[in-house]
Specification:
The chain is mainly alpha-helical. About 60% of the residues lie in helices and about 0% in strands. The longest helix is centred in the middle third of the chain and has 24 residues. It is globular, with a radius of gyration of 20 Å.
């Protein structure tokens, strides 16, 4: 009963203000708990021979916790984000100690070595790639000495990821529009943000040209097809997000009127995705879909408030619908949902 009361209280206060220290401490407990939890674990590994059969920690000494590689990466991002926003975060010393252990120069080099294997060229493409660059950006913009040290350690892995993107994008003749890990638009969005941050003009050019090539002609995105059974990303809104970034205002608004005319409707209603069983690791993805819808709508509203402020109620509704599930005690969602909630907070501003 006490746990239920805490969840309800958390739910009730969340929209009365911006992200608070109390809420941050709640959300931080989730990645802290799993950052160095090796099992259960889902490896995305290709085995060439028996010598490659090793434990998750041996294979990925930096990102072995939180069930899978990409969830571990965005668990690290969550903690860096919270430390930067809340210097007085509970368990600050423990968090920094764990982060420094995982993101050591030696551990990152082993991750680089793993991704450098020819047969792992597509490892975590492009979802995990995108989160590495978001983690790099967060570390780069955090002036604490421990963060700057970790940023320097992580950079070689980020450089590999940039190389992977640059090689892969011209080969991708058709975008992946599903609402899960391979979604092309989501994979490009965080990459674009990092390319802008790092002033990498060549990387920006590659992302912009390929995003326009892949998405410019799209029209009438089928919003009524969402949600698909186990989506955790909104295919329509993720595509909108990358085009919002690579196009100027006039071109973007013109494109959006053809791609998503529904968003201009001031009476638009959009139901949140419902989860039937949050102990099911795939069905719980739908909470992530609600956060994905929220963060993309917030980003749109913040850049173009005059045209899209009417969408804030929809964004808030989706955000509030799934927020209590982040701390519901089910590891199936706990190991990754905090990151999605925090990114929605980040875009809410």
């Amino acid at each position: 009963m006490k746990r239920i009361f805490i969840f309800l209280l958390f739910f009730q206060i969340v929209f009365s203000q911006e992200l608070t220290l109390q809420q941050a401490n709640h959300l931080a407990t989730l990645p802290i708990k799993c950052l160095q939890q090796e099992y259960p674990n889902k490896l995305g590994q290709m085995l060439i021979d028996s010598t490659e059969i090793q434990s998750p920690k041996e294979l990925h000494p930096a990102f072995y916790g939180c069930f899978d590689w990409h969830s571990s990466v965005h668990g690290h991002w969550s903690l860096i984000y919270l430390l930067k926003k809340f210097p007085n975060l509970d368990k600050k010393d423990e968090i920094i100690r764990k982060l420094k252990t995982n993101l050591s120069k030696e551990n990152i080099q082993k991750e680089v070595d793993y991704l450098s294997k020819k047969h792992e060229n597509s490892f975590e493409r492009t979802y995990g790639w995108a989160w590495i660059l978001k983690l790099q950006l967060e570390l780069d913009t955090f002036n604490a000495p421990f963060a700057q040290e970790m940023a320097k350690n992580l950079q070689p892995l980020s450089n590999i990821i940039i190389q992977r993107y640059t090689e892969f994008l011209p080969k991708l003749l058709y975008p992946v529009r599903m609402g899960m890990h391979p979604n092309t638009a989501f994979g490009l969005t965080f990459a674009w943000d990092y390319a802008i941050h790092s002033n990498n003009i060549a990387f920006q050019k590659s992302i912009r040209e390929n995003a326009i090539r892949l998405f410019q002609k799209d029209e009438n995105c089928p919003f009524n097809w969402e949600p698909s059974g186990t989506d955790f990303l909104s295919p329509c809104l993720e595509e909108m997000a990358i085009m919002q970034r690579v196009l100027d205002e006039k071109s973007f608004i013109s494109w959006l009127k053809k791609f998503a005319p529904e968003l201009f409707d001031k009476k638009l209603k959009w139901e949140a995705a419902k989860v039937s069983d949050r102990t099911d690791g795939h069905l719980v993805h739908l909470d992530g879909l609600n956060f994905s819808r929220a963060w993309n709508l917030y980003h749109l509203i913040n850049q173009y408030p005059k045209q899209f402020s009417h969408l804030k109620a929809i964004a808030d509704y989706h955000f509030s619908f799934s927020l209590p599930a982040v701390v519901d005690g089910n590891y199936e969602g706990e190991h990754w949902l905090a990151s999605f909630a925090l990114h929605a907070f980040e875009e809410k501003k």
